[in-house]
Every structure is written in C-alpha cells, then in structure tokens.
Amino acid sequence: MNEIVISVESTCDLSEEWVKKSGVSVINMEYSIDGTVYVAGDGSHTSKSFYDKMREGAVTKTALINEYDAENYLSGILETGADVIHLGFSSSLSGTYQSFAAAEEKLKRKYPERKIAVIDSLCASSGQGYYATLVSQYSKEHTFEQTVEYAESLKHRIVHLFVVDDLKYLARGGRISKATALLGNTIHMKPVMHMNKEGALVAYKKVISRKKSLLEVSNRAAHVYN
C-alpha cells in the first residue's frame, strides 16, 4: 500500500513542531500587510507580531492559491510515489478549494497510477487543523478509500466556536456591515461565531460583554460534548 500524505493549507494554524512530527504536508499561503506581500512560514512574522500589526491598524489581506500553484504543489507529492488527500480550506470562505479541485482533475489524468482526492473540509483555522490531525492519524492504519470516506463523514462533526474582541475585522471581511460593527463595538457586543453546515462563518449568538461570550462558548461546548 502506498504512503498516504494528508495535505492542508497554512490556514490550518498548526504549529511547525506539530507539522514536523505528524508528517502532514502544508502549502503556505501568501498574505500582505500594508501592501507588502509575505508567505506564511517564511519567518517574517510570528502569529503574535501579525496580530499586533492588525491591532495597530495595519491593513491585512490574504491571497488564495491559484490552480497553477495547487497543481505544482500536489505534483511534488505525487512524484514521490505517495498518494495524497488534500483537506481544503472551506469553499464558503475562499476560492482555494476550487483551485485544488481543478488541479485534481488534471493530475488524475497525468498520474493514473496514483490516487488523489481533494475534500472541501468546511473548516477553518484550528478547526481545520484539528480535522487534519484526526484524518492523519486515521490514515496510518487504513486504506486510501477508507481514509477518504472517514474524512468526508468527519467534516460534518467538527464544531467551531469562538468570539472576537473587535467587530471591525468582521466588517472588513464583509461578514457584517460597518454600521453594525460600529454599533456593536459601542455597546460591547461580542457575538459567538461558528461555521455552519455550508462552511460559512456566521453568528451563533449575540452576547453583551466578553465575559458572557466566553461563558456562552463554555456552556455550548459542554452541551456538544456531553
């Protein structure tokens, strides 16, 4: 049985240490700060320095991976003789998944002896990382087909719950209007956010004050896992 490589984008927020130990392959995405382009993992910024820049008012943007780069990246894995399962960043949040899906169709014709699957994870951030962790562990003792089936069923059971300190970033990303963000920040609204069944970022519950929002996340998590 060929080696199975589990692949994700750097949107998974997995630490470098974990990636090295797990064997998961990560393709780093580009981002920009005030117009200067960087590549995740190039050492230019830590997570802390990046978010400090945002708090200081820097304009930050991310860039999706195009089909050409996705194809080259996956080809590099297939050339080693391994099969690959790519767990793409939620298609409701980025066009990166479509780039990998298009690359998948080309590579199946180019490498008929290899197995390749691109899955829309419907996940983001640490939810995507946790998802990749579980699929990677499962793949060690199961076939390619079994791992794909497991990944497809598992993605609907990953629960994302989080809160934000400042609503302006949701407004900047088009998740809410600027007026809603201004009003929400004025009254200290801290919405509890989650990913819906389509992998889109939506408000689960609107709460006033950070303390109450964290309590809501805690209560919801306890309900989900009990």
Describe the structure.
With about 230 residues, the protein is α/β, with parallel strands linked by helices. The chain folds into 2 domains: about 5-30 and about 65-155, Dihydroxyacetone kinase, domain 1 (Rossmann fold, 3-Layer(aba) Sandwich); about 160-225, 2-Layer Sandwich (Hypothetical Protein Tm841, Chain: A,domain 3). Helices cover about 45% and strands about 20% of the residues. The protein is built from 9 helices and 10 strands. It has helices at about 15-20, 45-55, 65-80, 95-110, 125-140, 145-155, 170, 180-185, 210-225, and strands spanning about 5-10, 25, 30-35, 35-40, 60, 85-90, 115-120, 160-165, 190-195, 200-205. Strands 2-1-6-7 form a 4-stranded parallel beta sheet, with helices on both faces. A 3-stranded antiparallel beta sheet has the order 4-3-5, with helices on one face. Strands 8-9-10 form a 3-stranded antiparallel beta sheet. Helix 4 links the parallel strand 6 and strand 7. The longest helix is centred in the C-terminal third of the chain and has 16 residues, at about 210-225. It is globular. The model has no long low-confidence stretch (mean pLDDT about 85).
Low-confidence stretches: none
What's the Cα radius of gyration?
Answer: 19 Å
Strand content: 15-25%
- What does the largest sheet look like? 4 strands, parallel
Distance between the termini: 38 Å
Question: Could you state the order of secondary-structure elements as H and E?
Answer: EHEEEHEHEHEHHEHHEEH
Structural class: alpha/beta
Number of domains: 2
CATH superfamily of the largest domain: Dihydroxyacetone kinase, domain 1
CATH class identity of the largest domain: Alpha Beta
User: How many β strands by DSSP?
Assistant: 10
Helix proportion of residues, in percent?
A: 40-55%
Q: Globular, elongated, flat, extended or rod-shaped: what is the shape?
A: globular
Helix run count: 9
What CATH architecture of the largest domain do you see? 3-Layer(aba) Sandwich
**Largest sheet, order of strands side by side?**
2-1-6-7
Within the CATH hierarchy, at the fold level, what is the topology of the largest domain?
Answer: Rossmann fold
Average per-residue pLDDT, rounded, comes to 87
